[in-house]
Design a protein that fits this description.
By secondary structure, the chain is an alpha/beta fold. The chain has helices at about 10-20, 50-65, 70-85, 90, 105-120, 130-135, 165-170, 175-190, 215-220, 230-240, 245-255, and strands spanning about 5-10, 30-35, 95-100, 125-130, 140-145, 150, 175, 200, 205, 260-265, 275. It has 2 domains: about 5-190, Dna Topoisomerase Vi A Subunit, Chain: A, domain 2 (3-Layer(aba) Sandwich), CATH 3.40.1360.10; about 210-275, Arc Repressor Mutant, subunit A. The protein is built from 11 helices and 11 strands. Helix 2 packs antiparallel against helix 3 and helix 10 (about 230-240) crosses helix 11 (about 245-255). The longest helix has 18 residues, at about 50-65.
Length: about 280
């Protein structure tokens, strides 16, 4: 039986690939990377090429706004991920085993539903590795700035130390047909929504307004000018959500336009200006 691992995010994919290449047991197993952040952007009827193109255009606008427009890597990334997403079903052989790697974050939760829907017409034996559940099971700890061990919950495979991956794989469990049907039904509901921002609240994905993070951005901004990347990093560090810097940087621009933040410098690039409270 063919074994296919599906991971969410470049970092997760790199970790799996690196470990599996060194493993005699897993080196011939396929890994598919879905390098999307499903917590942001339109997902309305994303299974259709037309709506996938609209999401691509939305992400392009966001990336060009928040990063150097001359950096073609941004646009190449958008083209690559959407071409890859559209080919998921064709990459997974019928009658194969699919192992879903995921954690307790919004993007992975939506991603699971998207994958289940794309593979709905194939005879697949699904298994899952929940890295968040794994980290709680082993009572995972990290060291703080004072070098003291503190409990830490891993929220995505990309956060997991690579040396833990094979151990986590031993905790994989079967996914019932009923659960897969539930994921498919959930996707069909989400794919009818027009929101662009989603969070994980009490273990459930919910849609929130586009300005959800604005309060945190303003609270992390001082009366003295500072680089927006510092503010964005502080918001990311304090948030209980897995939110990327790209969307937060976009909201910084929106707050400037609304007069809620002052700036000095060149707004053409995030690195070329500073912000402070009015």
């Amino acid at each position: 039986m063919d074994v296919v691992h599906i991971s969410f995010g470049d970092s997760a994919y790199g970790s799996l690939k690196n470990i599996f290449q060194k493993s005699n047991e897993h080196q011939n197993e396929q890994i598919i990377c879905i390098n999307e952040d499903f917590s942001i952007g339109p997902i309305y009827k994303l299974e259709s090429n037309e709506e996938m193109q609209k999401r691509k255009q939305w992400l392009k606008k966001l990336l060009i706004k928040t990063g150097p427009a001359s950096d073609t890597d941004y646009l190449d990334w958008i083209e690559t991920i959407h071409k890859s997403d559209s080919q998921i079903a064709s990459k997974v052989p019928n009658d194969s085993k699919v192992i879903l790697w995921h954690g307790g974050n919004t993007s992975d939760e939506i991603g699971l539903r998207f994958v289940a829907f794309l593979l709905r017409n194939k005879n697949i034996q699904f298994e899952e590795v929940d890295v968040t559940e794994y980290s709680r099971h082993i009572e995972y700890k990290v060291r703080d700035l004072q070098n003291k061990e503190i409990p830490y919950v891993i929220r995505s495979l990309g956060e997991m130390p690579s040396e833990r991956i094979l151990d986590a794989l031993q905790m994989k469990k079967s996914v019932s047909h009923t659960k897969i049907e539930g994921l498919i039904n959930d996707w069909e509901e989400w794919s009818q929504t027009k929101d662009i921002l989603r969070i994980l609240l009490a273990g459930k994905v919910v849609a929130v307004s586009e300005d959800y993070y604005d309060t945190s951005i303003l609270e992390s901004t001082s009366n003295e000018y500072q680089k927006p990347s510092r503010v964005v990093g502080e918001v990311m560090g304090k948030s209980d959500q897995c939110i990327g810097d790209m969307y937060l940087a976009f909201r910084v621009y929106q707050l400037i336009q609304q007069g809620k933040l002052n700036y000095q410098g060149n707004l053409g690039s995030l690195r070329e200006f500073e912000i402070r409270l009015p």
